[in-house]
């Protein structure tokens, strides 16, 4: 009986505890931004993200079909992501950290929708018009991601509303942890194997 209890105590934390992603897991640093001097903009920083879509076919399988691989990679576009040099040089370190966390929130929202794109691709039956279908599905997902990112900025007042920022971070990571419950890291790219629907 003692051995059984000891075994349960050793095993149960691993069974109960699931990976919980936080802001620290979002792969974004100031080095991913271009430092701009003298820029005239009401904001002090902006992140730009892109999703690179691709597909390819594998060799024919035993049934004579060529499996289709659809892929997407979420990237931070350094050329279009920027921070004002004057802010980076003069701002209090705690404010710079808060701003970086706000920008990480944008990337976390994109990661959430990236997983939803993966699920959409997995569920979709592609025809021979793969590229057109991928672009169409991506545009639907991107519109939702853009709307959520705009709402995030509006409600947090670009991180200035500290209470709303904290609420958003909790909301984002609750959803992100549900979507990536089986992952040890937050993947920036995915591949989905499927077959063409005929």
Number of domains: 1
Structural class of the helix and strand makeup?
Answer: alpha+beta
Mean pLDDT: 91
Q: Ends: how far apart?
A: 59 Å
Helices, by number, come to 5
Q: How many DSSP-defined strands?
A: 6
Outline the low-pLDDT stretches: 11-16
Tell me roughly what share of residues is in helical segments: 40-55%
H and E string: HEEEEEHHHHE
* Approximate shape: elongated
Largest sheet: 3 strands, mixed
What are its keywords?
198 residues, alpha+beta, elongated
Question: How would you characterize this protein structure?
Answer:
The chain has one domain. Helices cover 49% and strands 16% of the residues. It has 198 residues and is an alpha+beta fold. 22% of the residues are buried. The chain has helices at residues 2-16, 85-90, 93-123, 130-156, 162-179, and strands at 34-36, 45-46, 49-57, 68-76, 82-84, 189-194. The strands form two sheets. Strands 1-5-2 form a three-stranded mixed β-sheet. The chain has five helices and six strands. Helix 3 runs parallel beside helix 5 (162-179).
Compile the SSE list and pairings.
Layout: H1 2-16, E1 34-36, E2 45-46, E3 49-57, E4 68-76, E5 82-84, H2 85-90, H3 93-123, H4 130-156, H5 162-179, E6 189-194
Parallel strand pairs: 1-5
Antiparallel strand pairs: 2-5, 3-4, 4-6
Helix pairs in contact: 3-4, 3-5
């Amino acid at each position: 009986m003692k051995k059984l209890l000891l075994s349960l105590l050793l095993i149960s934390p691993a069974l109960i505890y699931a990976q919980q992603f936080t802001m620290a897991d979002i792969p974004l640093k100031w080095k991913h931004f271009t430092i701009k001097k003298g820029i005239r903009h009401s904001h002090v920083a902006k992140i730009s993200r892109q999703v690179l879509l691709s597909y390819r076919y594998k060799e024919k399988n035993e049934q004579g079909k060529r499996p289709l691989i659809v892929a997407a990679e979420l990237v931070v576009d350094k050329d279009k992501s920027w921070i004002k040099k004057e802010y980076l040089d003069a701002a209090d370190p705690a404010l710079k950290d808060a701003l970086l966390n706000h920008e990480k929130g944008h990337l976390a929202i994109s990661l959430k929708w990236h997983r939803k794109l993966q699920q959409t691709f997995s569920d979709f039956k592609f025809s021979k018009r793969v590229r057109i279908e991928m672009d169409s599905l991506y545009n639907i997902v991107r519109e939702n991601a853009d709307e959520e990112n705009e709402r995030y900025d509006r409600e947090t007042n670009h991180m200035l509303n500290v209470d709303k920022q904290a609420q958003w971070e909790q909301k984002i990571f609750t959803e992100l942890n549900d979507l990536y419950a089986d992952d040890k890291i937050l993947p920036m790219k995915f591949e989905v194997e499927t077959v063409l629907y005929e």
